[in-house]
Amino acid sequence: MAKKKIMLVFGTRPEAIKMAPLVLEIKKYNDKLIPLVVSTGQHREMLDQVLNIFNIRPDYDLEIMSKSQTLSQIVVKTLQGLESILLREKPDMMLVQGDTSTAFTAGLCAFYNKIPVGHVEAGLRTFDKLRPFPEEVNRRLLSVVADMHFSPTSSSVENLIGEKIPKPSIYCTGNTVIDALLLVAKRKFDIKKSGLKLDANKKIILVTAHRRESFGQPLVEICEGIKKLAKTYFNDIQIVLPAHKNPMVTGVVEKILGGLDNVLVVAPMDYEPFVHLMKASYFILTDSGGVQEEAPSLGKPVLVLREKTERPEAIIAGTVKLIGVNGKKIFSEAEKLLIDRILYKKMQHAVNPYGDGKASARIVSAILFKFGFTAKKIKEYYSK
Ligand code: UD1
Ligand code: UDP
After folding, report:
1. Which family does the similarity line name (predicted)?
2. Which one from 99, 179, 293, 313 is the annotated catalytic residue?
3. At 219, phi and psi to the nearest 5?
4. Three-state SS for 203?
């Protein structure tokens, strides 16, 4: 049987982290599948950091990123750049991941060119078009465009079934982020080598925030809550905040938190030191999707800086709490977790609702099955 060409398109940090294990898995079947990696370059430094860690060299790079880019700019440049590559390479299938503008636009471009689309991390929903913005809508649009839906959990499968997506096209695989996390977390890494000036006597509170719906006042509130926490517990904690490179984030974060002695505002960290910093931290405050998925399997409590989340599983498991973007509430919830040992212990247990490290293997078996390379159907992943 002729080999099948599988094009993987991604452009941002989280997509690269979640697609890297899949690229590595597809490479194992080089007698059946040919991986072709296309980067849109929606991110630059933050993407390249991940490509280096997993030793992935894209076959094509559209280099679309510009400073403070608009969503329409990302879409237009991706559509224009990708179509000629699709016409030249004629892949048998395209894989996209998640909810970014890169993922949605690449899926659309494949659909226009009648190329089957596999959607990795399908079926996450808040059912609120504006939260997260524009990711909720990107996801829904991709579910319309895609032919194979690789859902991370049983509740994401249920969401798709509720939208009348044909059941045989849905596979419950677990999330590839756990594949990536386990690959990196097991490597030995001395946190002292991260270059961070950490005080061994203080607890580390890790913070990330970058969502578009939080730009402006919500991000100011987030920073004010963190500032109060840092000042109130100066002798006990140090806050580490790797700031996203979006100027809408760095401007506010540096203005409010820049001058505080126990707040380290640093550049985006490489994935490996970041994972080990998560392991070393006491708890995490974040609005990131990926961090919400990773931290529970490391046994780290997470307070989510959002009004809604499309990842309810760890909230149900009790390791994650949704606390919103009000500064006073952020301070009081973080304070509770800091001083209440019973509450901390309750949230601290490690759970794996998002995967077992075998999601990429399941996705690749489903692809091999689709193309008739194997008669074996995948054994699906169901979170407990
Ligand atoms: C994008 C995704 C979001 C994802 C996030 C992960 C969309 C609509 N949003 O949002 O879903 O959670 O990535 O981080 O696809 N920049 C740099 N260097 C970089 C990366 C970004 O300078 O390596 C700056 C640029 O000025 C760029 C800006 O950040 O214009 C915004 O980047 P963009 O990808 O549009 O939005 P994100 O907020 O990163
Ligand atoms: N991450 C990283 N360095 C950092 C911050 C985050 O490598 O300084 C990783 C994190 O472990 C997770 C991913 O980036 O796997 C999440 O990306 P981000 O928060 O940008 O996007 P989201 O998941 O919200 O779409």
Report:
1. Belongs to the UDP-N-acetylglucosamine 2-epimerase family.
2. 99
3. -70, -35
4. strand
Provide φ and ψ at 135, rounded to 5°.
-60, -35
Q: Which two tokens stand for residue 377?
A: 């159907």
CATH topology of domain 192-348: Rossmann fold (3.40.50)
Bridge partner residues of 205 (DSSP) = 239, 283
Mean pLDDT by groups of 10 residues along the chain of 384 residues = 97 98 98 98 98 98 98 98 98 98 98 98 98 98 98 97 97 98 94 90 98 97 98 98 97 96 98 96 98 97 98 96 98 98 94 95 97 90 70
Q: Which residue has its alpha carbon closest to ligand 1 atom 3?
A: 100
pTM over 0.90: yes
Q: Which two tokens stand for residue 212?
A: 């578009």
Provide CATH 3.40.50.2000 ranges for the chain. Answer: 4-175+355-370, 192-348
Q: Clarify whether 349 is annotated catalytic.
A: no
> For residue 89, what are the contacts with CB-CB under 8 A and spacing of at least 6?
5, 7, 36
Nearest protein Cα to ligand 1, atom 13: 12
212 is catalytic: yes
Ligand 1 atom with minimal separation from the 44 CA: 23
